[in-house]
Design a protein that fits this description.
Layout lengths: L1 H17 L6 E7 L5 H9 L4 E5 L8 E5 L3 E6 L6 H16 L1 E2 L4 E2 L3 E7 L6 H14 L5 E6 L10 E2 L4 E2 L1 H22 L7 E2 L8 H10 L11
Protein name: GTPase Era
GO molecular function: GTP binding
């Protein structure tokens, strides 16, 4: 896994360089409390991403930064901790996605990775953030949705623990769930995102596909501020 991880990060660095994108590539990470954002960071990047800081001021307390030379994750606090907390989070998230640099010519965030909990039936809070904040601030082509905890989608049933992978019945269920998420977002916003990738950070399953999904969505140009 370490060798594959290094190869993927090298590929990301090469793409950023070839496309003359801003270093490091800034990616916001969004998801409800308990969805597995930290475990996803660790599973994808291990020790290659160093935690930079967590803000001490009220307006920056909701962000932790992790970075390499060419890649930086802005991990926002979890959604779903109460209406007032979610309202503040929506405001802070909007500010992050619309933040600018280089004399306000470009937006800081080039990609947004939204993580859903596949084992939960209640994804309403994250859907709301997607519909009311994320997709209003950033082009859907720059939004990646991923579904974590694939091993627990059917409460552990139909997961092959010996071979660490889903059985065909669970795999079909996961594919249906991914399409359902994509279609629900389309119905709610009129915008089309790529079909989400299902994975398990804890079981280290399908992480290559998730990393490839991220690589496929690296933009071809910087995110310019619209006049």
């Amino acid at each position: 896994m370490l060798t594959i991880r290094t190869e993927k990060l090298d590929k990301i660095a090469s793409i950023i360089s070839n496309r003359a994108l801003h270093y490091p590539l800034d990616v916001s990470l969004v998801g409800a409390t308990g969805v597995g954002k930290s475990s996803t960071i660790n599973a994808l990047f291990g020790e290659t991403l160093a935690k930079v800081c967590t803000g001490v001021e009220p307006e920056t307390q909701f962000i932790s930064e992790y970075k390499t030379e060419k890649f930086r994750l802005h991990d926002t606090v979890g959604l779903g901790d109460g209406l007032e907390a979610d309202r503040k989070h929506a405001t802070n998230l909007s500010d992050l996605l619309l933040n600018t640099f280089d004399e306000r010519k470009y937006h800081l965030i080039d990609l947004c990775l939204v993580i859903l909990d596949g084992s939960s039936r209640d994804m309403g809070t994250t859907y709301k953030a997607l519909e009311q904040v994320v997709l209003r601030c950033i082009d859907p082509k720059r939004v990646i949705v991923a579904i974590n905890q694939a091993d627990m989608v059917m409460k552990g049933r139909n997961w092959n623990y010996l071979n660490n992978r889903p059985e065909p019945e669970l795999l079909n269920f996961l594919n249906d769930k991914a399409r359902s998420v994509r279609d629900r977002i389309k119905e709610a916003t009129g915008l089309t995102i790529s079909t989400p990738v299902c994975y398990s950070a804890e079981k280290q399953w399908n992480l290559n596909k998730l990393m490839d999904h991220i690589i496929e969505h690296i933009p071809h140009e910087r995110r310019r501020v619209k006049a």
